[in-house]
């Protein structure tokens, strides 16, 4: 069995690592806890009328729980791993009753292009459970984080919310503050 952690932290930022990770794991893995552990927080900030985007969804049940427990009727989950998107579609989208729950193979760095081209429409809520931490682990992590924020920003509708679950390491908080507070 493959270990949970990659050989280097930079691997968290590589598509190949995530393909191997999800090919070797069949069970749901909830980075930073599951929906129930954060339900008070989600209930407070996510509304039934939201169009929600879950970035870097992995094999987490977060999108499903937002769809089912919070009754959000439009939840799009994206991830760069084709393997996991295929698995999640099989697991959650095979029944017609979940028409508003979708899984798309997409890189977070292409959201802006997808919005501009009309392939995607703005969301009132974007959720990130560990994706920023993974992206902020490579050699170009500062510019990658800024690029990710720009893409998230383009995905948000007016008054939209970006909800981040992170380890909040100093460099992560610094990037968040630099982009969203200092502009």
UniProtKB/TrEMBL annotation:
Transmembrane segments: none annotated. GO terms for biological process: methylation. Keywords: Methyltransferase, Multifunctional enzyme, Transferase. GO terms for molecular function: methyltransferase activity. The keyword Transferase applies. InterPro entries: Lys/N-term_MeTrsfase_sf, Methyltranfer_dom, SAM-dependent_MTases_sf. It comes from the Eukaryota. Residues 48-175 form the Methyltransferase domain. Gene3D superfamilies: Vaccinia Virus protein VP39 (3.40.50.150). The keyword Methyltransferase applies. This is Methyltransferase protein 13. The lineage of its organism: Eukaryota, Metazoa, Spiralia, Lophotrochozoa, Platyhelminthes.
């Amino acid at each position: 069995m493959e270990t949970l952690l990659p050989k280097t932290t930079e691997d968290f930022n590589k598509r190949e690592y995530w393909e191997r990770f999800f090919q070797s794991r069949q069970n749901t893995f909830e980075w930073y806890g599951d929906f129930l552990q954060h339900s008070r927080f989600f209930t407070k900030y996510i509304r039934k009328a939201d169009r929600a985007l879950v970035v870097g969804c992995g094999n987490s049940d977060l999108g499903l729980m937002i769809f089912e427990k919070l009754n959000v009727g439009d939840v799009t989950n994206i991830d760069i791993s084709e393997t996991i998107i295929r698995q999640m579609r099989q697991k959650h989208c095979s029944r017609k009753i979940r028409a508003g729950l979708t899984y798309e193979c997409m890189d977070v760095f292409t959201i802006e292009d997808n919005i501009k081209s009309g392939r995607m429409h703005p969301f009132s809520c974007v959720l990130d459970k560990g994706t920023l931490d993974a992206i902020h682990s490579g050699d170009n992590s500062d510019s990658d984080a800024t690029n990710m924020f720009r893409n998230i920003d383009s995905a948000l509708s007016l008054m939209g919310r970006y909800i981040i679950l992170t380890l909040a390491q100093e460099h992560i908080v610094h990037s968040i503050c630099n982009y969203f507070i200092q502009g």
